[in-house]
Amino acid sequence: MTNKKSQPKNPVLAAVLNVLIPGIGYLYVGVRTKFAIMLIAASIVGIAATFDPQSFMYFGGETPPKMSLIDSLSLLIVTVAFAYDAYMEAKATQK
After folding, report:
1. Can you tell me the distance from the alpha carbon of 24 to that of 29, in angstroms, rounded to the nearest whole number?
2. Is residue 7 situated within a structural domain?
3. Are 31 and 3 in contact (CB under 8 A)?
4. Per the structure, how many domains does the chain have?
5. Based on C-alpha coordinates, what's the Rg of the chain?
6. DSSP 6
7. Is residue 57 one of the residues assigned to a domain?
8. Short-list 40, 43, 31, CA closest to 6
9. Is 58 contained in some domain?
10. Closest of 11, 9, 15, 2 to residue 79, by C-alpha
11. pLDDT category, 1, cuts 50, 70, 90?
12. 89: containing domain
């Protein structure tokens, strides 16, 4: 639920923030604060769980780590969905 008394927020900025760091766009708009914090925490845990120090030692002779097509498409769909949702939430503050 959007707080109608707050200052209008920039929808494009909210969407870009949610693309860069999932959840930050929600914090910017001031909605879904608990969800945003959980989303940021889940992103940090996900990065930490998949972190591979060997990937920083890639020097061209070996095959770099790759994401599967399903992983890539899933990430793209979720990122676009969160960006769109943050955009719409910020747009609602302008009414």
Report:
1. 9
2. yes
3. yes
4. 1
5. 17
6. S
7. no
8. 31
9. no
10. 15
11. very low
12. 1-50+67-95
